[in-house]
TrEMBL record, chains A, B:
Family matches, as PANTHER family: BLL6224 PROTEIN, D-2-HYDROXYGLUTARATE DEHYDROGENASE, MITOCHONDRIAL
Domain of life: Bacteria
Domain FAD-binding PCMH-type, chain residue ranges per copy: 35-215
Name this protein carries in UniProt: FAD-binding oxidoreductase
Database matches in InterPro entries: FAD-bd_oxidored_4_C (IPR004113), FAD-bd_PCMH (IPR016166), FAD-oxidored/transferase_4 (IPR051264), Oxid_FAD_bind_N (IPR006094)
Amino acid sequence: MTDLLDRLARRLGPRGFTADRDAMAPWLVDWRGRMRGRAAALVSPADRDEVAFVVAAAAAAGVPVVPQGGNTSMVAGATADDPDALILSLRRMNAVRRVSPEDNMLVAEAGTILHDVHVAAEAAGRRFPLSLAAKGSATVGGLVSTNAGGTQVLRFGPMRALVLGIEAVLPDGGLFEGLSALRKDNRGYDLRQLLAGAEGTLGVITAAALRLVPAAGSRTVAWVGLATAQDALVLLRQLEGATGDAIESFEIVPADALELVLRHIPGTRAPLARGHRWHVLIEAVAPKGAPPVPLDEAILATGLAEDAVIATSEAQADALWRLRESISEAERIDGMAAKHDIAVPVSAMPGFMAEARAAVEARFAGVRVIAFGHLGDGNVHFNVRAPAGADDRAWFAQQGAVVSAFVHDLVTAAGGTLSAEHGIGRLKRAEFARLADPARLAAMRAIKNALDPGGIMNPGVLVPLAEAPSLS
Amino acid sequence: MTDLLDRLARRLGPRGFTADRDAMAPWLVDWRGRMRGRAAALVSPADRDEVAFVVAAAAAAGVPVVPQGGNTSMVAGATADDPDALILSLRRMNAVRRVSPEDNMLVAEAGTILHDVHVAAEAAGRRFPLSLAAKGSATVGGLVSTNAGGTQVLRFGPMRALVLGIEAVLPDGGLFEGLSALRKDNRGYDLRQLLAGAEGTLGVITAAALRLVPAAGSRTVAWVGLATAQDALVLLRQLEGATGDAIESFEIVPADALELVLRHIPGTRAPLARGHRWHVLIEAVAPKGAPPVPLDEAILATGLAEDAVIATSEAQADALWRLRESISEAERIDGMAAKHDIAVPVSAMPGFMAEARAAVEARFAGVRVIAFGHLGDGNVHFNVRAPAGADDRAWFAQQGAVVSAFVHDLVTAAGGTLSAEHGIGRLKRAEFARLADPARLAAMRAIKNALDPGGIMNPGVLVPLAEAPSLS
């Protein structure tokens, strides 16, 4: 081990290698502060050749490698947990190598933060259409490795749909050069799609070619009051029919979530005169140079809205978005919650929200469910609050895992997933192993063992191996 | 072997099993008539349980299984070539199990022909946006397994982008149930994307959940005369900027391809008054209820067109499309050609068409290159005609492989692919092995061996194994 660390220190130099405890400390704690990890060193290669050197050396020594980008995982997917592990930070590799407006594509190194991708795309008269709250920290490598989502998935899809090419160092140290970003390429197994969402367990992504779309023209933002969640879904489908692909966001907010925001977030106010059981926030985007999307007429024509308001300025649009984006903060101020990042088929979500809420509140006396988010993707944040008057921390320490297992069972019975956009990481691995169907698990294990026979890539994350019977 | 066939005959019954040579004959010849295969029996299961029975029995006996849908492969990807092989036809499994307009999704069994998918989607007020010439024969299982393309890929992507879920029998006979068609699902390796494009080498797809899009409103079809291929690409990007995602087809036709059509196809006539070196056929689609896309104004505003015509009726639109769709037939009437289904990055295609044409015509005296097709996807049909006066058959027997290797070398040097939409199959496997980078091949072999250790699934197709050094 000492020999390995010496070799790495020599090759990577002082900017690329540290085994200092204080220097490593920030990168050993996960984003949500749930876990404090362990590692032998933090290596920060300057280029893909140095990444290949690190991985090959680690493979030869049988030492774990934990790739890390912005360290913004919600499921501790980038937290090392082995005293011999190497944290492989991609943060020094943050160049946008190439922007090609004619190909509607740019190539960014793994350590490029999302915000810089947005800026580079805009400078070329294009747009990169995925965004999320952590855009100032989250990096391209992590976004691809976790197939990140966000509030704009409805029209252009999650990260997986926006990846045109990948360059990666495989677990044997070999370089996979898949950056060519062809629009059509039918040469067998799509290794790019296999690496996307693999959470660093099959190799280290060093760069990605990302899809750009035409620059946006004006956006139209609406806030609509509705009687039922089912009405929200019908509204979405009718608006899609009426406006083509113009609807980019369609977020559902129940009355209790809006109340929390209005109570806890300064400067917010109710957008509609009366109360409604359900609200949706809608954003439609017109092409550049085209007139704004006539969202008001389209909403009126459905006859579904109890009331609606269209933002008449960017400031008003931002204020409506702030209501949606402040829900998590308002919840946090209000108290602890067990959070679940779940999805079911879109058509089943309105019913699921009502039935699962009732089932949870019946099973755990006094708890409250607040579910909100990406209705158009069939993906909501399903948060369970402790009973009023209970000591939040003590209650969740005792009941948290039971509550989550109950929620995951309901989701699984509805044909859904316990991870819609955050991934599995370390925190959900046991639940994934408990709930996944055997054929899926066996195939994942077989692929993992085939590409990483030494098991050095991000061990303990995503793939439940310990409990594994082998495929054959 | 006799024992295996007896067991299969008993389980599948007379509709599901035959070893009769005459009955098997049509399914032993590939679509282009290039290859006559061999097999022990043709099995046609009625449901997924029977598929699982066949695969498990074949796995136990070590007998090859060749999945077959419409048998329309352009690369002999569904042709059995082993006297012991079982042709596994999915044609009896042709039910559309479910159409869910609210989920923008339908579930079709593997043997459903593409035309029936179109009909089912339309009946539900939706649209399945992929189409191709063989839509009356090609089946869902084959379309997914080969990641099929076509003329409408520009906006909605190839088959891979339209697959929301897959149900498949894996090589050990286990059932992978991945039909739930969640819009967001981050549970690790995407086995659906691994099976899509795998050409039946990793299992048998028994059903797929397919993405639907809103029903189309009016289409606007234009034919534009241009001075250069580069102008065509600039035109495409400007129209995309001006019309959002409305452009669904953008096909390039050089003067010589149009001349062939006008000469050989009865009832065709030149759409523009004068001759132009390049033409593009453009189709833009408006949402239902929306006004037609103002394609004429948008084209005029670019200042790039030498001349242009907009179809003013469906009959005129069909006539313009007929010019494009008749090129292959016109070529066939005119004489033999070595055909290449290639792609390079979109921005490189105008230059590649000129330079590769010049290189081929310089290297092989007297040949003529005709390249046309999906410019917006960076994918053209690059066809090389024998020298005038030569005996076509004799010339291609002697020079065909040399010509194709030369073309593939040019494509590879340009960062492109020797298979844009047809796949590898049997016909391109040797060229794929020659040109693929070692890391890609090693990873593909490792995955193939991991999921199909007995090598029973469609052996000889796609994955070059014989020449393989192992990964580790």
